[in-house]
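Researcher: We plan to redesign the surface later, but first we want a full-length starting point. Tokens attached.
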């Protein structure tokens, strides 16, 4: 299972301008980019990331001890940001204290500079102020000018205390001062403290100024939202939702339609932020509704850019909800919303928003493509990501570039898994290795782990196509690296996802080895994954891992003499079918029915029970109801091959030849898609199976026709079952061929010596 990096999925309109919200897609899998204002990654012209990072690191060194190039950077930043040297050093201290990521240093520095400018005005004394307050604010102005925000904080706090003790007529000024304190805390990226000051400001507003009180509640909701989205704080996100709903009750659409619409967008962003982290879809459904309501006022004719941003947010919420509910109709609606957004989010007009919307379009098309049998939607997703990369270049936006490379690689992998060659899979591996260049473990540990997991999945897909085990060993290594950061304590569901993937790589490796060590490790990995992937918490993922566990147990059971492992495998498959129902996930249901049929066949052969074999045939026939040739041709062929195996086992226990003839028909149908050019080893396997059933039929008939066909099938099989590529299979097929040739020679001799009538 793959995981998408979803850092800035949508841009919400907070503080009367678009901002970025962050949502995490479950599982994983594609990367979404948020694009405008606060939350975006920008660069300061002429100042490379490395120089900016160096300036922050050396902030406390005296200016005269800095190198000439460092002093030039300081002077350039002062000019670009319109800050004095002390203010710039204070800004560096703030960035260092908050340990801001390298890619966000420029963004946050610009944000802090803008807030410094705002503070210069908002912290000024006003006519009619108490003389003490005037003096304190003058000192605060001086402190802000010198970059001493801590001192300014103390002075403004003192001023606020004096004002709040004053008469009711001065309450509004006290509220303004608290709001200034809130802005100051926003400048320091202290969102919780800022929210408290804005809440206090709202509470201080005297009666008769409801508009002022609501504006402070808006700012409180903004600060709570930022805390919830940027710091994964569900308590803050919940508080933001509550505040937005409070404001909506006080801000009816009939009186202030645009303010009402803005609040609906705030509410939608907060609901989506929290809903993306919860298993219950209720909050995501409410987010979708909030965006729809906002569009009643934000029309394309009156507010084209706000309309487009709301369409983008609406489409993004539909995508997250559609993924959660496996609802293709909702995903199609998301595509439509994003296509509408692109009518105004053009590259010429708003290039970064255009790239953000193209990225979100890629995410939704990828989700749709993974659910459809064709490749049209996946090809469209590739195109959307490649368009986004025209603006998200590595030089300008390295983090967004890496996230888009990750998502593009996931789509290429999906395409590669549907093609016979390995070119797309190779491209996917290459893209993920590129993404790791900008996702080092030291800077972005969780994202690094996600890309390592995705790299493991791509390598595993490649390894399944190749004869050796090099790629599979690399996949195991990638998963184990991912688990260094995807720990159970920190991210239990990501840990379980990676553990499940590790189990699958070990299982495939074990199926190619003679021993059972890897298979035992795979079983252990699946059982660990199920500790967090519970049916109550993530029912579909639980069923997926339960199915994988069944397959590992089935392979183990085929190598052991008893039936214990096979019985466990059958039980695991039947548990998986409780959630992977035909109505809910038809292709997954068919896969489990196919695997269940294989396990029942092995049990029936081991126990000499016709009943188990009959159940096996029934399960495989059920699988073919959804595994059709038109929909999934290779899976259809695999199930037909398995059905042939079950029919042989049944036919060998019966006196007639009906089951055996059905098996011949099943194998010949399978070979229509299992061609030598497309899947050479699978083709060889089915040719070998065809030889086996023809040999059995030939033994029961007096002629030589079936035996001659068996010889031909075995010889075709050996074209791919060579000693170098498949030594065990080659030896078994050669032995079967020798037996058939001997029987054929004996039968031919008998026919020559038979008396003529």
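Model: Full-length starting sequence:
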């Amino acid at each position: 299972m793959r995981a998408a990096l979803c850092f800035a999925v949508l841009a919400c309109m907070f503080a009367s301008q678009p901002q970025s919200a962050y949502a995490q897609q479950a599982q994983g899998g594609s990367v979404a980019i948020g694009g405008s204002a606060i939350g975006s990654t920008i660069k300061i012209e002429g100042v490379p990331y490395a120089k900016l990072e160096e300036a922050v690191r050396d902030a406390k060194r005296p200016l005269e001890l800095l190198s000439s190039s460092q002093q030039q950077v300081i002077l350039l930043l002062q000019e670009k940001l319109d800050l004095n040297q002390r203010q710039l050093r204070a800004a560096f201290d703030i960035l260092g204290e908050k340990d801001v990521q390298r890619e966000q240093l420029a963004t946050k520095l610009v944000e802090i500079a803008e807030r410094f400018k705002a503070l210069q005005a908002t912290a000024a004394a006003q006519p009619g102020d108490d003389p003490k307050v005037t003096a304190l604010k003058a000192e605060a102005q001086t402190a802000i000018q010198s970059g001493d925000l801590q001192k300014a904080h103390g002075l403004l706090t003192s001023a606020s205390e004096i004002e709040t003790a004053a008469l009711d007529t001065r309450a509004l000024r006290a509220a303004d001062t608290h709001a200034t304190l809130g802005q100051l805390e926003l400048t320091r990226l202290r969102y919780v403290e800022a929210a408290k000051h804005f809440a206090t400001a709202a509470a201080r507003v005297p009666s008769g100024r409801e508009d002022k009180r609501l504006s402070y509640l808006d700012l409180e909701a903004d600060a709570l939202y930022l805390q919830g989205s940027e710091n994964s704080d569900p308590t803050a996100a919940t508080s933001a939702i509550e505040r937005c709903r409070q404001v909506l009750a006080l801000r009816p659409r009939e009186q202030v339609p645009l303010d009402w619409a803005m609040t609906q967008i705030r509410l939608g962003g907060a609901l989506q932020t929290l809903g993306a982290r919860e298993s219950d879809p209720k909050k995501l459904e409410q987010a979708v509704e909030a965006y729809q309501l906002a569009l009643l006022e934000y029309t394309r004719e009156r507010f084209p850019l706000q309309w487009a941003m709301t369409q983008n947010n609406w489409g993004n919420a539909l995508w997250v909800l559609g993924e959660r509910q496996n609802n293709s109709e909702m995903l199609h609606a998301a595509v439509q919303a994003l296509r509408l957004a692109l009518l105004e989010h053009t590259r010429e007009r708003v290039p970064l928003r255009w790239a953000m919307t193209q990225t979100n379009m890629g995410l939704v098309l990828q989700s749709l493509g993974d659910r459809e049998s064709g490749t049209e939607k996946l090809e469209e997703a590739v195109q959307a990501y490649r368009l986004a990369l025209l603006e998200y270049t590595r030089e300008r936006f390295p983090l967004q570039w890496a996230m888009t490379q990750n998502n593009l690689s996931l789509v290429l992998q999906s395409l590669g898994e549907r093609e016979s060659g390995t070119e797309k899979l190779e491209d996917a591996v290459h893209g993920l290795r590129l993404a790791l260049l900008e996702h080092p473990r030291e800077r972005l540990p969780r994202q690094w782990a996600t890309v390592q997991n995705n790299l493991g999945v791509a390598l595993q897909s490649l390894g399944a196509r190749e004869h050796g085990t090099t790629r599979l060993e690399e996949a195991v290594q990638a998963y184990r690296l991912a688990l260094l950061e995807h720990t159970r304590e920190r991210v239990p569901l990501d840990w379980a996802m990676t553990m499940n993937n590790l189990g699958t790589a070990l299982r495939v490796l074990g199926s190619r080895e003679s021993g059972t060590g890897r298979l035992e490790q795979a079983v252990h990995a699946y059982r660990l994954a199920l500790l967090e992937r519970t049916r109550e918490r993530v029912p579909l993922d639980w069923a997926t891992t339960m199915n994988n566990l069944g397959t590992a147990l089935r392979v183990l059971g085929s190598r052991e003499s008893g039936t214990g492992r096979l019985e466990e495998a059958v039980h695991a498959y039947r548990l998986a079918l409780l959630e992977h129902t035909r109505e809910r996930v038809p292709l997954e249901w068919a896969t489990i029915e196919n695997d269940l049929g294989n396990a029942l066949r092995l049990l029936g052969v081991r126990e000499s029970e016709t009943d188990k074999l009959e159940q096996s045939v029934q399960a495989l026939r059920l699988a073919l109801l959804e595994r059709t040739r038109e929909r999934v041709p290779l899976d259809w062929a695999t199930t037909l091959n398995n059905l042939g195996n079950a029919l042989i086992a049944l036919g060998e226990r019966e006196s007639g030849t009906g089951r055996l003839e059905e098996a011949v028909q099943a194998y010949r149908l399978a070979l229509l898609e299992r061609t030598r050019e497309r899947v050479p080893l699978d083709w060889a396997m089915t040719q070998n199976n065809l030889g086996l059933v023809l040999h059995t039929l030939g033994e029961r008939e007096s002629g030589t026709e079936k035996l001659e066909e068996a010889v031909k099938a075995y010889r075709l099989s050996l074209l791919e079952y060579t000693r170098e590529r498949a030594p065990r299979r080659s030896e078994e097929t050669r032995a079967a061929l020798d037996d058939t040739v001997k029987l054929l020679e004996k039968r031919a001799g008998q026919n020559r010596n038979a008396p003529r009538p």
